[in-house]
Fold this sequence. Notes:
Helices cover 25% and strands 31% of the residues. It is of the alpha+beta class. Strand 25 (498-501) and strand 26 (505-510) form a beta hairpin. It is globular and about 85 Å long.
Amino acid sequence: xxxxxxxxxxxxxxxxxxxxxxxxxxxxxxxxxxxxxxxxxxxxxxxxxxxxxxxxxxxxxxxxxxxxxxxxxxxxxxxxxxxxxxxxxxxxxxxxxxxxxxxxxxxxxxxxxxxxxxxxxxxxxxxxxxxxxxxxxxxxxxxxxxxxxxxxxxxxxxxxxxxxxxxxxxxxxxxxxxxxxxxxxxxxxxxxxxxxxxxxxxxxxxxxxxxxxxxxxxxxxxxxxxxxxxxxxxxxxxxxxxxxxxxxxxxxxxxxxxxxxxxxxxxxxxxxxxxxxxxxxxxxxxxxxxxxxxxxxxxxxxxxxxxxxxxxxxxxxxxxxxxxxxxxxxxxxxxxxxxxxxxxxxxxxxxxxxxxxxxxxxxxxxxxxxxxxxxxxxxxxxxxxxxxxxxxxxxxxxxxxxxxxxxxxxxxxxxxxxxxxxxxxxxxxxxxxxxxxxxxxxxxxxxxxxxxxxxxxxxxxxxxxxxxxxxxxxxxxxxxxxxxxxxxxxxxxxxxxxxxxxxxxxxxxxxxxxxxxxxxxxxxxxxxxxxxxxxxxxxxxxxxxxxxxxxxxxxxxxxxxxxxxxxxxxxxxxxxxxxxxxxxxxxxxxxxxxxxxxxxxxxxxxxxxxxxxxxxxxxxx
Length: 621
């Protein structure tokens, strides 16, 4: 029996596992890195043990020692990090601890996507053809892609999450894509082996949740639609898929069960497929709990973490497989900008309201580090119908207040509101095809509300004549205007419709409709609801000016590679250098044709967001 569990993970998934442990009466231990010393999951655990530097979640010895020091008798790996490393599972078991996961042999069998495809083909699970690219020298093993139809997809043999994955549009792009994918895979997983397979464009990404016990029972718990992705990482997931028929569901579930039985699987796992028309192709098997497991939990009325723990204790799965009811949708809230670049910093306010489930790794005051994935939370809705689930989730995103960091909240909300999503017309190229807007300019009322609130706050903090209205002058020459980076508004005299204006709440009425705006003030900006407005100073300080053509770092990171030299001619879109942030490569390209007049960094340089990396002078050499 498990009495004290160490979670070898962080953030949202650690808190999720702790929640079930509290309900089961199991004590919890958080192993934490130096970067996470003040994180919410650390304070929520009954005990916490320091592991070491920010990447200590990949240190097998440190985690096993932490479990032993804390008196834990079991280890749950969560997802990511070491969750799919057979050597970690073996080390936990050899230490006499209970491993909450599949047998090491099953993890190893699926640890290489190349070997996994071979095993699945032998088990009668449909797969796509593929060619392996050796990590050591980049040689393509087993043939060539010359007779294949483009586009192709390059994928890392180890790991997932979109790292080490590249789309190749033409034969001329193949070598660069292979080299880039190999580097990123090596950095993220310690294994630069990749493989190439045909890309099924406009295919759906469908996965099946499986659950197996040590007594030979395997459940297939329906399917999840995970087609909406950016940078090959999922953004929206739902259960069931709006496109899967009962016949297709039976095919997918049968294939998933065959996959589990072929490797002697035990515990929770996921078998992923690409589906396009009549084509069903095995993608990979994740030998762990998935990020999107909550949608299956809500539709099937299960706690998958609880079942993981009971299976690890040797219990059989309880009775018959449950039947699905209703519809669930999950969105992943990331700290990132409209170009999908990760953001770091402080979450000043985190508040999500509405009839939804929120699995979060942060709270108000949390710090988002550059060391880890920028996902802040998962927001999940459940409804008796798909339409009801969409409505609940859309409303929750509308009412959410996340201050301090740029997030993808607007993008998520606009996806849910789009006609294509509501019609269920989704596929892996959804965001590229529909160009869903990730930005929402402030409305005139929001700008006015911000201006009025700032004026009211100034008056409330005044040391003399506090009773005078904001912006009052005994000789009025022209209206008072508040200017923000995003817009401006005339606030004195206030236009008709302003019912009440205080520092933290402004009420306005238009055509008989009254609306209340909640205001939050910070050092450099003000939020109206979740809309950020940045006041422009009346007397701005001299600002540092960058030379025309300066390429600025879009985020903090390290320079992985510089591909040009000073004096070199470059074409528009040519890669100038590559940054690495959060274990992913980010290419910095020339905005126009010209000449490299200066290179300000070198390989290995650590740069802050906004740093000048290079300067491109437009024109010919």
